[in-house]
Structures are given as C-alpha cells and as structure tokens.
C-alpha cells in the first residue's frame, strides 16, 4: 500500500520471493505506468518491474484476500490514510510497517499507530527495517533487513515471504528497537548531510554517526528495547547506509541545507519524503518525555524549526561539556 520508491521495491521483492502481489497507488498515472510499461518512472526510472506485479488505485482490490499488508505511505499521513482501509483488511492478515518515523503530536511509533487505528493485537503488526536503499535493491544488489514482530511465527512468515536470492532477511521480536533505529537514524543522516554541505570530512561524519548511534541506544533503553538490536542491521546498518550514500534522501536533504539552501527551498526540490525532517520534533518530544539526552536531535530540530544557523549548531555540539563516552539515561 504505497507506490513510492520503497513500496514499489518491496512489491518486486515479494514477487521475487514467490508471492502474488498487488501494489496500491494513489496516482492513476503511476499505476498505469506500472501496469503498461512495467516501470515506476516517477520514483524508480529505468528500473524494470515484473509483469506479474500489478497496480491499482482501488484499495479494496489491493487488499482482497491477502496474507500481508505492507504499509509504505509517509509516516505523518499514516493515521489518516489507514483509517478508511480498516474495514477492507482481511481477518488475520499481518500488517507490516515499512515506514521510519514517529508521529507528530502523539509521539507514537508507526506500529503503535497501526495497532490503534486498525484495532488489532500486537501479534498482527510487524515492522521491516534495515539498510534498504530502494534503487540498489530494485537493481538486485545484495541487501538485507530485519523482520520484527512480537509473534515469532509471524516474523518467520514475513521472513519467508521476502527472502530472495539477492535479499536476506533476519527475524527479531524487538519491535521497539527495530522501529527506533529506523526513525532516529534519519535525523542523524540529516546532521551528517549538513556537515558534508559545510565541507567537513570523514572524521566529522564518523563522529556524528557514532554519537548518533549512542542517542538511538539511549532512547531505546528508556523505551525497553534490546540494546543488541542497535548493533545490527536495523541499527548500525541502516544508520551507515543513510549517512554515507548519496541515494539517501535525508543525507541529501541535510547536505543541501549545509550548502546554504533554506528549508523551504530544499523541500521544494525534494521529490520524495525525507522522514527525518518531519519526525525530528516528535523524536525530541519523545526523548524529553523519558528524560533522554539527545543533543544531535536537538541541534537538527533547532536548525529546521527554530532558526539556528547550521554553523552555530555545529559549535554547540562540539563545545558540549566533557563526558565519559558511555553514559546512561
């Protein structure tokens, strides 16, 4: 459900893993291109899609009789988008979140929003996350992810439905950790991009990634996540890919800010959603609720929404009071 770059790529993966898949899209012209030209020219130009991957603008057609419902819409629109689909959801279907964000206003993780809106138990909601740059996966480059659900059987079922010769899937029951890794790394990637735009090099990027991972782990610990999750694909793996690749939209967004563009200017030229931009305030609010210190998140939010110049934010981070490298919540 969602025909952007990741939703389209995930549909191809499900097909390549041996499944029957229907892709729902909001825009008729994108759906027509997928059905007629077997390509999504707006989001993945030049990438060939299997003829068996069919698209529709009718959610009832897409959802009829399915085992898995993969939700790939912008995080901040999930609640409103999912609500009219709820009567169409097949009983027993596993609802899979492909989204990496935290809801503004409620500070809910995406799996929490799904459970609340669809009124389903935790065992029917899974999350799928990792270093998943759509362009590389749709091209068949070796990649991997984590399928997480509190029901181990459901996680294994999702694993089986998505494993392909080029894509490896691991399972986890740590839904909180897998989700937080995906949501917060976007904010760190924005900060890394800003540093690149300012002309800083690899040392600065490594500093931000490492201390960003510490922020993710501190918040995860406060919310009950397994700290080992953050050393895996949904933590460090996703963080590295999002911070170093020019294909990563949050890093690119931050890089443009670092080069002097305004938030409105970068937003205007960015075709796809940079989830870290919208989620940064929600993540910071979540951290404050749990008394978790997240200086990188604070700095990014100050730049995006409170007019702090990026160089001033950089100075504020590097001049913080000395601390041990490892300290708790």
UniProtKB/TrEMBL annotation:
An individual GO BP term: glycerol-3-phosphate biosynthetic process
Reactions catalysed, as given in the entry: sn-glycerol 3-phosphate + NADP(+) = dihydroxyacetone phosphate + NADPH + H(+); sn-glycerol 3-phosphate + NAD(+) = dihydroxyacetone phosphate + NADH + H(+)
UniProt entry keywords in alphabetical sequence: Cytoplasm, Lipid biosynthesis, Lipid metabolism, NAD, NADP, Nucleotide-binding, Oxidoreductase, Phospholipid biosynthesis, Phospholipid metabolism
Broad class of where this protein is predominantly found: cytoplasm
Compartments where found: Cytoplasm
Function: Catalyzes the reduction of the glycolytic intermediate dihydroxyacetone phosphate (DHAP) to sn-glycerol 3-phosphate (G3P), the key precursor for phospholipid synthesis.
Name this polypeptide is given: Glycerol-3-phosphate dehydrogenase [NAD(P)+]
